Amino acid sequence: MFDNTGYRANWFPDAKITVGSLGKLEDGIFTPYATLESQGIPVRVTESASNLSFDYSSKNGVSIDVGGGADINGGPVTDGKLTISIKFGSDDAVVFQTTGFTSKRIDNLLEIEEAILDKYRKKTWKEEWVVVTEVLHTDAATIILSHSKNSSVELSGNANAQVASYQLANTQLGLKFVKETGKITKLIGSTNIAPLYKVMGIKDPFIGKTKFTVRGLDKMLADAEPTSAPGLRELALDPRELE
Questions:
Q1: Angle at 229 between CA 224 and CA 233, to 5 degrees
Q2: 52-76: per-residue pLDDT in tens?
Q3: 101 - beta bridge partners?
Q4: Radius of gyration of the chain, Cα coordinates, nearest whole angstrom
Q5: What pLDDT does 206 receive?
Q6: Could you tell me if 131 and 138 are in contact, meaning their C-beta atoms sit under 8 angstroms apart?
Q7: CA distances from 235 to 92, 127, 221 (A)
Q8: Which of 85, 84, 89, 83 is nearest to 62 (CA)?
Q9: How far apart are CA 236 and CA 214, in angstroms?
Q10: Which of 11, 28, 163, 216 is the most exposed place for a label (fewest CB within 10 A)?
Q11: From the centroid of its chain, how far is CA 81?
Q12: Can you say how many angstroms the Cα of residue 62 is from the centroid of all Cα atoms in its chain?
């Protein structure tokens, strides 16, 4: 997800996560400890809404079949019964679909950066702390994650629902879990959740200055730009977080 969208997955997506929260990343999961405001750092938040849907599936790892051959965007389904079969061809393949999302993000990062670096120099800010800078909230979402190769899921729903397409996150379809094979984690038609977020944190490279940056250090990028000035920078997810 991070490599393709720039966002981290909030797992589990119904876990409360708030812009301006600070905490630690433990096994790739954000654990809140406090807030910026509790540390005397004011936060300004901008909110933007969209009617767009977010649709992501792993490349070369997922196949979706509707009604025995119809496309996910619609097609003839008989007897008012909708059947959706999803097959996963690789480990950790994912299907992630949402409808209507709202983004909440910090818009005074420069002031926050200066305040955090000041605390860091005074040794009142721990290097491993990270700050949630943006959270995406969705009206509804269906998220299915495969943990084993050749796993599958079958869903059933209402084919007579007046919808333009059979999107998995559409709650009007009334999708229900029927059966699965292999190891699967699934959230079907969950509403009002926060599935995606971004964090930033302190990074002190071997050469160069301390900077406030998107958490998740990619060693190659760090080695390539070791003397860059303090600032905000998008960096890749560090696989070591998940070890």
A1: 65
A2: 667 777 767 888 887 744 444 444 4
A3: 50, 138
A4: 21
A5: 43
A6: no
A7: 22, 17, 8
A8: 89
A9: 8
A10: 163
A11: 32
A12: 18
List C-alpha distances in Å: 199 to 28, 78, 122, 185: 11, 46, 22, 24
Tell the residue number behind the tokens 């009604």, with chain if given.
67
Amino acid symbol at 205: P
Domain ranges of the chain: 2-242
Q: Of 183, 162, 186, which is closest to residue 172 (Cα–Cα)?
A: 162
3-class secondary structure, 37: helix
Rounded CA-CA distance 66/25 in Å is 38
Q: Where are the alpha helices (DSSP H) in the chain?
A: 2-5, 109-121, 219-224
pLDDT at 223: 43
Q: What is the pTM of this model?
A: 0.75
DSSP-derived 3-state class of residue 39 = helix
Can you read off the two tokens belonging to residue 167?
């999107």
Q: Which residues contact 223 (CB under 8 A, 6 or more apart)?
A: none
Burial 18-38 (b: 16+ CB within 10 A, else e): ebbbbbbbeebbbeeeebbee
Residues of the chain with pLDDT under 70: 4, 50-53, 59, 68-80, 161-166, 203-210, 214-243
Amino acid at 120: Y
Whole-angstrom distance, CA of residue 215 vs CA of residue 72: 36
